[in-house]
Amino acid sequence: MPYIPHTEQDKQAMLAALKIQSTDALFSEIPETLRLKGELKEIPEALSEAAMLRLMEERSEQDKAGLCFIGAGAYEHNIPSVIWDIVGRGEYLTAYTPYQAEASQGTLQTIYEYQSMMANLMRLDLSNASMYDGASALAEAVLMATRSKQKKTVLIPQTLSPFYRQTIQTITHPYSLNLVEVPFSMQTGRIELADLKAYEGQEIAALVLPQPNFFGVLENIDALTDWAHEQKALLIAAVNPLATALLKAPGTWGKDGADIAVGDGQPLGSPLSSGGPYFGFMCCKKDYMRQLPGRIVGRTVDTEGKTGFVLTLQAREQHIRRAKATSNICSNQALMATAATIYMSLLGPEGMQRTASLCHDNAKKLCESLSKIKGVEKIFSAPFFHEFVLKLSQPVAIVLAKLAEAGIQGGYDLSGAYPTLGNALLVCATETKTDNDLNRYSEALQQILRG
Amino acid sequence: MTIPLIFDVSHSGCKTTSLVEQTKTDVSDIKDFLRQDKPLLPEVSELEVVRHFTRLSQQNFSVDTHFYPLGSCTMKYNSRAIHKAASLPGFLNRHPFALDNFSQGIMACLYELQNYLANITGMQAVSLTPMAGAQGEFAGVAMIRAYHESRGDKERSEIIVPDAAHGTNPASAMMANYAVREIPTLADGDVDLEALKAAVGPKTAAIMLTNPSTLGVFERRIEEIAKIVHNVGGLLYYDGANLNAILGKARPGDMGFDVIHLNLHKTFGTPHGGGGPGSGPVAVGKTLLPFLPIPIIDKKGDRYVSLTEKDRPQSIGRLSAFLGNVGIMLRAYAYIRLLGRQGLPRVAEYATLNANYLMKVLVDAGFTVPYPTRRASHEFIVSLKKELQECGTSAKDFGKRLLDYGFHAPTTYFPVLVAECLLIEPTETESKQEIDAFAEVMIKILAEAKSDPNKVKTAPHTMPVKRLDDVKAARELDIVWKKK
Questions:
Q1: Which DSSP symbol is given to A50?
Q2: What are the residues whose beta carbons fall under 8 Å from the beta carbon of B130, sequence distance 6 or more?
Q3: Radius of gyration of chain A (CA)
């Protein structure tokens, strides 16, 4: 019996203590009509550990694809060996939420260090202990802003990931917010200040601003942040945390800085894993502390004055406030945040900046060589971080399928989400790519478009 | 032992050069966008990092190191095999937007998992995408809202929640912009049907229930509850946090529930990670089928495909950027394959046997249980109200003292309607010997409470820190390290 340690003797002794004949008696309070007769037909017979692993190996081998140049919100990065060796330790992996502080100092101090690193990276006053992912964190930030401002309009650029926009729709739908999509410049690939004029004078709770945006393009953050503040709206930054090591931190945008910064922490040590688990992060200015969802760890002292850590500000949370909580979030993505804490500790400020620079450098090199190919055109003029958009002379789906045959995952097809861009392909190159990898991509694409 | 913060170990200029290519890079083209400051992150060697976080981990209690009878959390053994299966390179390296041709292996696992969970819950269909129990709850309540809206039924503004419910239930109802109406529980632990009848009406959108309830007993009149709520046009939501007790024994779908979320990180043996990641799939009956959140994995001929809003126009939509916590789903899938058809009901049998046996031993030793005539489910409550009155020792004190004896504390002060309660859930993976040892320690602490109450009241004595000052933590907030 997998993972059940009882011997027949143990079982009999326990049944005898309960004065019952069999475990059936334990279910006597379930009405007869509801008791399951027969088996769970859909569930197969048990496999041994070896047979299960063999099945899973076969399934995972089946999905082996080529060199990955896809980004669109999930990025392949080098993950130092240390991270998952440490995070995989049973003491991190198999602990619960740290409710018993004295027996959970490891997790609590790790989260305190995580909060400190994220807040310092974003240059904001505070950070919570993590959210589910970047998209749901942004949806919570939108709710937080509308609560704080008591206004219902939120400006959402179309340069924000379409998947993030859909998630905001789903999560805020019950509150009937006025989510206004702001179009981007077809020339630069970003939001232009002049285009925001149309929204001036409206009762705006917040402007969401991605950096880099979904196209990889760098937004004009300083001017847009100041514009939002002139409208008395909050500025919610949606950023890539690895890029933030190199780029201006949200807390320093414009004259007063972003008010809330969120994003997906995946680039900080989480493997691609088909989209999850990753983690969302959320940082803000101290003015919005009471509106912050999720767990927060604080440093305090014990009865002898020794430093220790506890969950704090719990009066915002569901287990205390129930229907008046700032969110229903309970479990978060603590283990992935632990991985990020170790990632940031290992790389340090310089390692993270170098990694971000290498990403940018590789993307730039790739963009240059690909845009020289006949039938390929770079469509946006504004600078980018580690992703860029190309317009192809052939339908993207066909090109991607051919690239896959050549062992290359060529990028993300934008023609579904952005039909006005035509045959547009979003390509990403990170620090994992060598010059040889980049050459392989351009040679393959050249052949496909020539043929 | 206090471990210094990693920032205090930091020495400026220290770096781990083997981790990043040292080739020259050029960022001059984006110079206007660059940050001018060096981010305030630690500068430490690789060995310092390894030592720091290894030492920190050693300050945790965990399932791997300690019996962890935390009620409502199902801290069962997390199999290493399922961890290994989900960590295969093919799974870890797959991009969420890999082409369908390179996704058939993983989609096969997810498609089968959807079917298994539908079968286990007695529901029609499953979406795996919610990332934790609370997101599953939100998805469920959002589907209920979408259902009423689709019928033009706009008057329904209330969700009924028993007072024993987990805090996420009312909070999830609030996230879906519903008012919460609490109904009381009777002295025997079942829902007060008269109060329910009085509460339901044209405003009722749904009731949210956990069964067995958080009081550790099976709601015996569940069919009647279903009838009362359905008769006024409301729906039934099942909080599947407590599925361990009925796995393969009874199914929420058969009880009349319209929607359920499951916590894969509880019943299906995936690790809790110090607070996540979890996974909270939702299962629905026929009524809510069109509203399931996307993406959903489907099979067309012999090919697996991912359904989107185009295939499911009435879907409540997307809850995250990609597919949800796929790594956790793979673990749950592997767990079900290991236990198989016969293994799943055994989980319920032994989880329930362990809980009832431990309850019996404790009752015989003089502990008070609030529902003495009831069978325990996979968990049960002990109330220490008498001990608080007689010895001045509270449930919190008992919990802290248990730590000294090498046992994690049960859940304390939840559910809120039982005074000074410990909610104890041993799970099926603990042996009789471990449970006996825990009971012995409980009895020892009970004796200490009488002979030396101060020892219990000032516990723990052997942890890295003594009792911590929560009030100071909240008043003199220190949540981010700052450079002195």
A1: H
A2: B136, B138, B139, B261, B279, B280, B281, B282, B293, B319, B324
A3: 25
- Give the pLDDT confidence of B437-459 residue by residue, as tens digits: 999 999 999 999 999 999 999 99
Rounded Cα distance between B460 and B472, Å, is: 19
Dig out the tokens for A367 from the structure.
Answer: 């963009």
B63: which DSSP letter?
T
- Statement: the pTM of the whole predicted model exceeds 0.95: yes
In the predicted model, what is the mean pLDDT of residues A334-363?
A: 97
CB B456 within 8 A of CB B397: yes
User: Which residue is listed with tokens 């050549």?
Assistant: A406
ipTM of the complex: 0.98
Query: Is residue B152 less than 8 Å (CB to CB) from chain A?
Result: no
Residue A279, helix vs strand vs coil:
coil
Residue A25 CB neighbours (<10 A): 14
Q: Within chain B, how many helices (H) and strands (E) appear? A: 17, 12
B233: left (phi over 0), alpha (psi -120 to 50) or beta: left
Half-sphere exposure in the Cβ direction for B158 (13 Å, CA)? 17
Strand ranges in B102-258 using DSSP code E only, listed in sequence order: 125-127, 158-162, 179-183, 204-209, 235-240
Average pLDDT over residues B15-43: 93
Residues of B in contact with A364 (CB under 8 A): 26, 29
The residue to which tokens 């099979």 are assigned: B299
CA distances from A180 to A157, B92, B320 (A): 8, 36, 20
Interchain proximity B119–A42, CB inside 8 Å: yes
List the single residue in B with minimal CA-CA distance to A58.
Answer: B105
Distance from CA of A16 to the nearest CA of B (A): 10
Cβ A312–B477 below 8 Å, yes or no?
yes
Q: A225 — phi, psi (to 5°)?
A: -65, -45
pLDDT of residue B1: 66
Burial of A29 (C-beta count, 10 Å sphere; 0-12/13-18/19+): middle
Task: Collect all residues of chain B within an 8 Å Cβ-Cβ radius of residue A103.
Answer: 60-61, 66, 403, 408-409, 460, 463
CA distance readout (Å), B81 to B78, B91, B327, B436: 9, 15, 13, 28
Q: Does B102 contact A245 at a Cβ distance shorter than 8 Å?
A: no
CA distances from A184 to A224, B4, B76 (A): 13, 48, 51
Q: Name the helix (H) or strand (E) containing B306.
A: strand B303-307
Let me know: does B67 contact B287? Beta carbons within 8 Å. no
SS3 category, B240: strand
Q: What 8-state DSSP symbol labels residue A418?
A: -
